[in-house]
Amino acid sequence: MARSLVDSRADPAYPRPVPSLHALANPARFLAIARPLTPVLFWAGVALILFGGWAGLTQTPPDYLQKDSVRILYIHVPTAWLGMGGWSSIALSSLVFLVWRHPLAMIAARAIAAPGATFAALCLATGSIWGRPTWGTWWQWDGRLTSMLLLFFVYLGFIALVRAEDERAGFGGGGRIAALYGVAGSVLLPIIRYSVIWWNTLHQGQSIGLTKSTIDPAILWPLWFTLSGFTLFFAGIVLMRMRTILARGKAEARLRRRAHHVEVTA
What is the pTM for the complete model shown? Predict the structure, then answer.
C-alpha cells in the first residue's frame, strides 16, 4: 500500500529536508537561535577575557627586552584581529546581500560596523601605548599603522553611508550602495596583513602563525584565552545589535502601517 505524504514525513526512514539558505536567513529562524545564544556568547567571552587578563598580568614573566609592556599584547592582538575580522565579515555579508538579496545579510553588516570600528580604534590606541616605550614614539606613519588607521576611517564611512541610505529610503530600505562599499573596502585587508613584509617598518613582523610563533610560550599562552574571549564577546554584541535592528525595523513598519491606516480612514 502506498505511503501517504504525511506518513512519509513522520517516518524516520524519510528524513526531513534540510532548510535552504533562504530559509535559514528567515528573521524568525534567526531570532529563535540568536535569543538564547546572545547571553551565552557574551558572558563566556567576558569570563575568558577576565581569566586571560588575570593570567597575563600575574602568571607570565616579563619579556627580556620589552619588560612588562609586552603584557599589552593580550589586548592589542585580539583588537587587531577583530578590527580586521569585523571588516571581513562586513565584506562577506555585503556580498551575500548583493548576490542573494538577503536583508538579514545587510542587517549583519550594519550590526558589525560599530563594534568593528571600536575594536579598530582600540587596536590603534593600544598599539600607540605599546609603541611609546618600545619605539620611543606614540605614532609612526609606517605601513601597518597607516593602513589600520585607514580601515578605521573606512568603518566610519560605512556607518555614515548606512545612515544616509536610511534617511533617503527609510530605515533598512536601502543597502546596495553600502554593500558595494563593504566589498570594495576589503582591499585594505591584504595591505594590512602584508604591510610588514612589503615595506620596511618599525612594526615587528608576523610573530604568531597558525603552526608556530616566535613568542615564548610562557608569555603567549594567556593570549589564546583573551583572543577567544574577545571573539565570543564581539559575536555576542553583534547578535545583540542584529536583534535590536530587527526590532526597530519591525516597530517602524508597524508605525508606517498605522499612519497609512489613519490617512485612509481620515
Answer: 0.85
